[in-house]
Amino acid sequence: MTFLADQHVHSDLSGDCSVPMREMARAAVKKGVDCLCFTDHCDLEDYQTGAYDPDCFDGAVRREAYENALFSVGGDIEILLGLELGESAHRPEKTAEILACGGFDLIIGSIHNLRGDVDFYTRHSRNLFISKEQCMKLLERYVKEHLELARFGGFDVIAHIGYPLRYMKDAGFDLTLDGFRDEFAEIFRLLAGSGRGIEVNTAGVRRGMGEVAPSPELIRLFRDCGGQIVTIGSDAHTREDIAADFSWGVDALKDAGFTHYTVFRGRKPEFYEL
Ligand SMILES: [Zn+2]
Ligand SMILES: [Zn+2]
Q: What number of other Cβ atoms are within 10 A of residue 210's Cβ?
């Protein structure tokens, strides 16, 4: 990898991160990262209740933090401004309003909770995963919601496919998405045919999954379905996790036959050698 771009990074604009953007940016310079795209949360539904959160986006605050980060690092690193947009297909009108603000380099589309439900993280913290059968039913809905998201649009790449698996595993149910190949083939063909793609999220490596998300098998399936657009993101919420385990992402992509990965600027893809 000659150009190292981490395109899934949080700052204290996300409720689950306490490090200001300018400090994350400075830490990335020290790590030798070439490009950092901040993708702070904009979850349209509250992670604890699943209720609509009309105040989840404040573009002016984000822009100010971004300008500060730019000023603080000078030209030592390229800093981009993206958005991790959660549950967009549940709230089309709000999504349209946010996207109309413009000025984003990258939109990553996430599903953290199913329609009418709480975040999978919250489900786990409340001991709401109770059996393998129940988890499989939730995964069925999770996959269906990805098809809905792929049809709905409003993103450049889908983030961390397989997000619930880490919490299910923590609850004692070690499952995979292997049984949903046909469903994912449909989702991936939709993405490939519309110039969109997937993110390879390396957080699973450090969170006990021992692999990236989506799994190497699904990354290969995406490639087989004609997929070309792939970003890599650490999902860092701390300075230490910036660009963590990127070699896992690079290896998974190379094993699947990719020679390049994608960096988004102004929501336009550019390709860099892996
Ligand atoms: Zn996420
Ligand atoms: Zn994230």
A: 10
